[in-house]
Specification:
The chain has 195 residues and is mainly α. The chain contains nine helices and no strands.
Length: 195
């Protein structure tokens, strides 16, 4: 029983962290949806020992250029996040990005766009990646300290306004580098197809 207690506690902490994000940004939450997510996460963790993957029931229809480039689902979310900002001049929150993906026809098996609660977990990593990518455009090995300082200068922080450090960025560098190359291939493929 203790094993289940620990796993359910982990699900509760994940939910509380998400709610803290709502509180910090002033966003409203759908308590019914949140409690369903908590219940499913607790059940899934109890059965498997792993957190529920928010993307488990979401599948983006394949795009030939994206498949060839190696984009992941989250990479596609990132590209939509960037595109939204370019078109609308502001960063989307989870709700905005969910609606935007739906407008673009990017839907899961349930026929709806990715849930805002799923997308919210990616917004901070997208902000950090964007700063890292600016530095990566100038250097094959960007200074993690310089990236952390640039994040601080832009007011990009972790939960509870904890500063982003070089160590924080180092944890993501391998995935950032993978995304960097996948996005470059994707854009090159898209440009080639438009000719």
């Amino acid at each position: 029983m203790r094993r289940y207690e620990q796993r359910i506690t982990e699900a509760a902490r994940t939910t509380a962290g998400r709610w803290d994000g709502y509180a910090r940004t002033g966003q409203t939450l759908d308590i019914g949806q949140e409690m369903r997510c908590f219940a499913l996460d607790g059940i899934w963790r109890s059965l498997t020992g792993h957190p529920l993957d928010g993307l488990a029931d979401e599948q983006i229809p394949p795009h030939p250029a994206a498949e060839a480039s190696g984009l992941t689902t989250v990479d596609r979310y990132y590209l939509a996040w960037v595109e939204y900002q370019q078109q609308r001049g502001a960063e989307p929150n989870g709700d905005d990005l969910s609606k935007y993906l739906g407008e673009k026809g990017v839907v899961g098996r349930n026929g709806r766009a990715a849930a805002a609660s799923t997308l919210r977990r990616y917004l901070l990593p997208f902000r950090i990646y964007s700063v890292w990518a600016e530095h990566r455009a100038r250097s094959e090995q960007p200074s993690l300290k310089a990236v952390a300082e640039a994040c601080a200068a832009r007011g990009i922080t972790l939960q509870y306004n904890e500063p982003i450090t070089a160590a924080t960025i180092a944890e993501h560098t391998a995935d950032f580098e993978r995304r960097w190359h996948a996005v470059i291939r994707h854009r090159a493929d898209a440009a080639a197809q438009s000719r």
